[in-house]
Structure formats: C-alpha cells, structure tokens
Predict the structure.
Amino acid sequence: MTLLHIAILIPFFSVPFIPLLYKFLHRIHTGWFVMLIPLMLLIYFAGYYPIHQPLEPVIQSVPWIPTLKVHFSLYMDSLSLLFALLITGIGTLVVLYSIFYMSKDREKLNFFYAYLMLFMGAMLGSVLSDNLIVLYAFWELTSVSSFLLIAFWFHRKRSRYGAQKAMFITMTGGFSMLLGFIILYVASGTFSIRELIAMSDQVSQHSLFIPAMFFILIGAFTKSAQFPFHIWLPDAMEAPTPVSAYLHSATMVKSGVYLVARLTPIFGGHLEWFWTITIVGLITLFIGSSLAIKQSDLKALLAYSTISQIGLIMSLLGIGSMALNSNYSESSLMFAGAALAGIFHLINHSIFKGCLFMMIGILDHETGTRDIRRLGGLMHLMPISFTLTMIGAFSMAGLPPFSGFISKEMFFTGVLTASRSMDSWVVFIPIIAWIASIFTFVYCMILIFKAFTGPYQPKQLERKPHEAPLGMLISPMILAALVITLFFFPNLIATSLLEPIVKEILPQAFANGEEWHVHISVWHGFNTELLMTIGIVVIGSLLYIYLTKFRNIYDSIPLKFSLNKVYDRGLIEMERIAGLITKFYMTGSTTHYLSYLFVFVIVMVGGSLIFQDAIYLDFSDNSPIELYEYMLGFTMVAAAIYMLFTKSRLISIIAVSVIGYIVSLFFVIFRAPDLALTQLVVETISTALFLLCFYFLPKVNKYVTNVRFRISNAIIAIGVGLTLTVIGLSAQGHHLFEPISDYYKDSYKLAGAKNMVNAILVDFRAFDTMLEIVVLFVAGLGIYTLIKLRHARRKEH
Amino acid sequence: MTFSIYILFAGHHNPGGGFIGGLITASALVLLYIAFDLQSVRDIIPVDFKQLAAAGVIVAVLTGTASFIFDVPFLTQTFTYVELPILGKTELATAVIFDLGVYMTVVGTTMTIITSISEDEK
C-alpha cells in the first residue's frame, strides 16, 4: 500500500462520511468539506509535476489476485499525471461551483457528493492503473457513478431515460473492451500494459490481434461518445450542470482518448488502427459540429460540441499513430506533431468546455431557461458572465488570443501532414476538418450572440436575470484565466508535460535517440493553416448572418432514420422479445422449473459422461460391505419408495429426513464427524422449515395428474438417479490425477488448524466461503422481502 | 447455545466451525420458538436477525480486506500464539474472526427465513 494507492482510495473512503457531514452539520454546505478532497489530491499530484526534467515513471504494485495475474498496480507517467491533474483540478473547481449551484435545502447533497467522489476515485483509478483488469473495474465504476449522477433528479422521466441510455451504451462497450483485454492476455500472458508494450511485436503476431484491437476500440469509442455511439451524450445532459461540466466534457468522456493514447504503443503503426480512429474521429467531428448548430437548448449545443471536439482529438491521435508505421518513418516526427496537437487540444478543451458549461449553468440558474429562442440581450445585465462566455467560446472557435487558436492551428498542421505524406484518399481529411471547423465557428457564435445580444425578452424568462453571485463565478474565472495564460505562455507546459507525453505515446518513434523538442509558437507565419483560419472566419460569419435560412436545410433531413430512433426501437424490441422468452418458460409451476433443471443435468452431465467416454466402473479395490451398511442402505431405499406412494405431506417430510439422518449415520461410520454433525443440523433445520412451509400449503391432491405427466416425471427421476450414480461410481474408479487432499495434510503447518475441514473452509478456500455466505444472506433477504411485500400489498387493498 | 459457541471456537482444531455452530444456534432458537411463541422469544432475545446477518457478511469481507493493509493477497489468514494469564499458551487466528462472520451470517439468515415464514399469515 503506497501513497499513490491511498490517493485513489481516499475518495472512496470519504463516501461513508459524506452523509454524516450532511446530517450533522447541515448548516454548512456539504460541498465545503468535500472540496478538501480534490484540493488535497490536486496538491499531491501537483507535487509530481516535472519542472526541470521529465517525470521518471513511478510504478507501485500490490498483489490482489496473484494467481490470475491481477495486481493492483499503478503506473504514473506524464500522460497519467496530466489526467490526474485534470481530474482533481477541474474536480476542485466543479465542487466549488456546485456549492453555489446546488441548494443545500432542496437537493439531496449527501447522495450528490457521494456519487461525485465515487466517480472521482474511479476515474483516478482508471487513468493510473497499469493492470488491464483493474483498469476495467475502475472503468465500469465510472459508468456506474455516471449513471447515478445523470439520474440524480430521478423523478424526471428524461433523467432516467438518459441515465439508462448512457449506461447501456458505455457498458456494452466496456464488455467488448474486456473481451479485447482477455485476447491480449491470451496472446501475451500478462495484463500489465507496460509488459504488453515491451512485447508488442510478439502480441501483434497473434491471430486475434486485429479483433482484439476492434473490441478495445469499441470500448474507447462508446465511452468517448464517438460516432455511432455518440447518441448517449446529449441525453446525459439531464444531469445537474456541475456534473455535465465535470463528467461529460472534462473527464469521463476523455477516458476513451486516454485509452487510445495509452495503447498506441501496442497497436499504433497498424493501418487498421490508423484508419479506424481517424475516420471515426473525423465523422464524429463532422456530425457533432453540424448537429450542434441545430440545437436550441444551449446545453445540448455544448453536448454536441463536446462530441465533435473529442472526435477531433481522436482523429489527431489516429494520425499521430502513423509515426510508428515503418513505411513512413522519415516523416514520423511530423506525425508526432499531430499527437502533440491532440494532447494540447485535450487540455484546452477541458479548460474552455468546463468554463462554458459552468456559464450555461449560470444562465440557466439566473434566468430559468437554456433555450436560445427565449434568451437575448443579457450582455448589459450580466457583463461578467458575458465576458467569460466569450473567452470560452472564442477559444473553442479557435480565435486568438485564446489557447484554442494554437491547438486548432496545430490540428490543421496535423491533417495537412497526413495528406502530404500519405497518398490515396487521405487528401479528404483536411477538407472535412476544415468544413467541420466552420461549423464549430458558427455554433460558437450562436452561443455568444444569441444569448447575450439581440432583443431582451423579460416576459419569456421565469426569473428576473441579474449577475451571478461571485462564488459561482470564481471557478469559470480561473478557467478563463488559464485559457488566456496558455495562449501567451504555451511553453509553460510544452517541454515539461507535452513533450514527454508524446514520447510516451509513440516510444518506438523516438527509440533511436532522435532529437525532438516541443516549442509552440503563437505566430507561425503566413501559411496554409492561417489561410484556412481566415477562410473559416469569413465563411463562418456569412453562415451565421444567414443562419435562419441555413438552418432550414436541417428540417429537410428526415428524422425517421436517426440513430436515436434505432436505439429506441431496439429497446422496445428487446423488451418484447425478452418478455416472450420469459413467458415461454416462466409458467409459475414449480414442477416445470424443477423438470427444466433436472433435464439440464441429465443432458449436460450425462451427455458429457457418454461423449467424453468417462464411464468407468471398477470395483476391484473396494472394501467389503458390512451387514449393517446393507441395512442402512435398504432403509434409505425403503424410505424413498415409501415417499413415492404416501399422500400425506407430513409423512413425506419425515421420510426425507429419514434419508438425511441415515446419510449422517454413514458419515459417522466412515469417520467424518464434521460432515455428520453438519448433515444432522442441516437436516433438523430444513425439516423444521419444511414443516413451517407446508402448514400453509393445500392438501396434496394426486388425482389431478395424468398418466403422461407421471411417465415423463418418472423418466426424469430415473435419468437423474442413474446419471448421479454413474458419476459417483466412475469418480471412484478413476485415478487420473494425484488427489489434492495431500496438500491439505499440512493444514496445521500452513494455517495453524488441526481441523482440516475447517482449515479448507476458512483458509484455503475462504473466497468460496465468503461468497457462499453472501449468497445465503441475499437469499434470506429475498425471502424476507417477498413475504413483507406481500403483507404491504395486502394492507393496501 | 453454549455447545454451539464451543463448536464455533473449537472449529479450528476439532470438529465444528462457524457454519455448523450457526446452524446449531439456529436450531436451539427454533426449539425456543416452538416451545414458547414468537413474541415472548423476541422479548427475551431482542436481536434483529437481518442486521446480524448483514454484520456477519461485513465481518467476513473485512477480515479478507484487512490483508491489504499488510500487503498480502486478499483473504490471506494469519495466526499467532500469545501467552495469556489464565489460559496459558493460546492461539489467535484471523481465520476464527472470519469464521465468526460465517457464524453470524448463518444464524441471522436462517432465523430471518424461519421467522418471516412463520410470521406470514395465510
């Protein structure tokens, strides 16, 4: 257990205390306490920040399930550090903002902050884990906590719908990703990302290498809302705005980008990787930016813009990965520039999008609406908000003097590099990128000018707007200040953070010790990139002026075939088919259920006995059977047969317990006191339970059963009996392996227990026991709930 | 009851253990319920069996998790011998705590099932 492990676990450990703070210190907003956690972690992670030389990667490992090669191992390099800083930094600002946004009297803050901390821990875990299985666990935990946060206002139908949609899509992707991880494990024998990178040549020889790549990419694309999985993100906007600012723009949606960057050393250089990521990224960029213009809800507009911007980052990482392809090794440094642009834009996007989301939250909070058709003319009423929104939106549009300008110019350099150094239809990449950037410019203008200029319509607003309280403005102000600082001093992070990150993403490209230093300059001369920007501003402004006409184009696109419709239709069909299947076998009759189970046993176990040629009867070394053993055996048989013909439940129960007690007698004879004791007590308890239950049941009525039913039951019964007898006898005859019982003979030495059975239960196989008692407990709760619910329902009527 | 507790702690070296101890306790309690009635037994033994079961699961899981603190894999059990004033050389094993969790879960769950079924009206 190291400090790094504790840093990840702190948010989880804080969760139980949040409701207590909420309950006992209700007069103080719970957010003030919660804010200390991300702040503390931010300071801790900032301590790792390399000022003079690149960060030496730190690796810390704690064995978790060593036999399955699952270790809780953490790996901290510049890429992980960047994400950790974003998670804790934006996390601090978001919590600060939420203190003013979430009312402590109306909202259930205890749940809100508990979910938020759960999310933060999960996010830190997924960007710091080196073990793929641990990464997967944290990854899914981010989906779960995001589900809880989206559904925070669960009384709204849209919130529940959005939460379900996000969970469905991201978790399906997660499963697919797990499949990919397992294939990688089969190919390499390790779950460690670093070890996988070291043996990437060997891994890529595996026949399932390309499918594994696609399975993992589906995970990354669903999480990062890439086309065609982007449909969950706009619906996730039902979450409270601080959540949208944090999860759905700055951190969680970027974990797909993180995964792509992290795994580029393994998969990069393969053309499949390059094409998939670049094309998906560009399509997402294009669709997201063009759909954003259509939105009238400002938050939905931001959601689509997030989709498109992450598509942009993805496509840059895709282009960057070509640095690892041996055919293009002479231009590998130019491709590295694309990866650099991607990472730089990722930072910029987190900052300006965080700021913009907070501003939209303020607008919503102060006016009661986010609809641009009702907003307008707020510039004079909310001058600070206007300034901050403008800074964020200009940065997003890629205009100077804001940091988004630099990364957008670098983006153009990246796509031009791709089209210059590669042939075939790569030439389309810059064109798509350029058109999408025009759309980006247009929606940024909508964001600023529709809400803040134009006619002021006080009658359309629910509240009288005024400037937001200072506390709410602090967080976006800090972010806006960062936007400007990064424009004027981009090299603050260039050499110490960006350069090592690119070298980590593309290690093979720099393996021969080539000199490569990052220096970002704001003014890069009159070149194609600058001309493209000028073109964007000119055409974008024209489009904005003729926006009403331009928007009409969208109305002519039929809605019928949209992906959302496909999703909704799929949901309905899935429920219908599931209902049909369930109706087919859930008949409500215990007899049916039991016969399914037994037939399954006969087919599976009996079938494999026959097909595996496993029947083997050998009685040669059996010990002689004593007379009293015969007697006990016959009593059991007699009790069983008697049970078949009795009509009273009571007698049946007693006959069953006779069998059970005789079994325990057998255990006594064969010197297994532990088993005998257990069998005795289990028999007693279950008899008592049966007696209790049967008291309520109607009288046994055997005459309703027809002959066919009886014959089929008899066949099933004989089949099960035969199968199990043959298994028992065959198992006795076979001696294929050394019996494992020898290992347990050392139980006293290994576990300090003289009782071997107990040592097995609590030491050697304690994991089984633990899960068994959990199952037992859940079953008990289930019975309790069923009965109590019945009472409650009866009282209602 | 005394016997069941003896069984629980003897489990490490002699026949017995948490599961069986729990069942014996449960059967003792069932006997009490049969001899008296639900309400009077509840007055004598004011235990919420649901909570007991939950506590048992938590104890068992926590004993497993505690091994993390000592940098050893999940559910690693350990044992040691200490000299106690009256009992002399006594063995302390974390496995016994784990077993206690099992015991509590078994008693709690069994009793929850039995009492809720018996409380159920027709």
Observations:
- The helical segments of chain B are 2-10, 18-35, 38-44, 49-66, 94-119.
- Chain B has five helices and two strands.
- Chain B touches chain A through 57 residues (CB under 8 Å).
- Strands of chain B lie at 79-84, 88-93.
